[in-house]
Amino acid sequence: MYRAIIASHDQNMRQECENILRQDGEILPQILDSIVEFQPDDYCLNCLVFIITEFNRNEIEYLLKIQRYIPDIAVVLYNHSLQLSDISLLNLSDQVQLIIGDERKQMLSALLRDTKKYHWRRIPYKQFQIDLTHASPQMREALQFIEQSSISECNINHISEYIGMSPGYFSQKFKRELGLSFRDFMQQVLAHYEEIILDRLNLPAREISRLLGYSELSSFSRSFKQRKGLSPTQYKKLVKV
Question: Can you tell me the distance from the alpha carbon of 5 to that of 70, in angstroms, rounded to the nearest whole number?
Fold first, then answer.
């Protein structure tokens, strides 16, 4: 399941947003009184959107801080109307989208559809030259798990247990249906995620390794250099040039 954070003191607005999210079926809402209650963790990587119905300067500054932990998170100010006091605060962040007025429910539903479609955790199967036409329901469930779960849990033992298979059988079935080993597949997925993060976020290597589920910075650096031929720091400098 993807996640969405709803931060609001307005019970009616909270319920309205929650109803829209639950209709989608793939998004689990988390309700907070204020965005400052949100604590980033490994599972924040599958957060699609922060929905706030009112905010102050502290909340805006906190939002800017936590956006560093979550690539491409959508931030939405959602309400039936806009308070004049909110206008000056919006200048603090050009990443806050406004969904205001009578068409807000339809607009939020459309935004959720687009955000899921282009979410950074979506696996580009065509780019990887993987045909899912003949993939079994179990393999599709495994792939959905990879897109939506903590990356540190995306290993053979955890996924095979999740879908009710032995690790050995899962490994064989994965390669038979998708045409490459699970290890090679995950290397491609991590490389894809790395490129997105390095292109869009100015994060230190240690933070990138955390995002990608590595337990040690040295493991990430070694794996990255094997794929790219450069250290993460060297690669970032090259990309900036």
Answer: 13
Q: What is the pTM of this model?
A: 0.74
Query: Confidence class of residue 71 from pLDDT cuts 50, 70 and 90?
Result: low
Q: How confident is the model at residue 70 (pLDDT cuts 50, 70, 90)?
A: confident
CA 35: distance to chain centroid? Answer: 17
Task: Read off the pLDDT of residues 49-67 as tens digits, 9 standing for 90 and up.
Answer: 999 988 777 887 788 777 7
Claim to verify: residue 10 and residue 113 sit in the same structural domain = yes
Q: Give 27-71 as a 3 state SS string.
A: EEEEEECCHHHCCCCHHHHHEEEEEECCCCHHHHHHHHHHHHHCC
Residue 93 lies in a domain: yes
CA proximity to 82, closest of 63, 97, 64: 97
| Domain span including residue 171 | 137-240
With CA atoms as reference, report the closest residue to 77 among 60, 59, 56, 53.
Answer: 53
Instruction: State the Cα angle at 77 between 106 and 58, rounded to 5°.
Output: 165
* Contact criterion met (CB below 8 Å) for 151 and 45: yes
Higher-pLDDT residue of 82 and 136 is 136
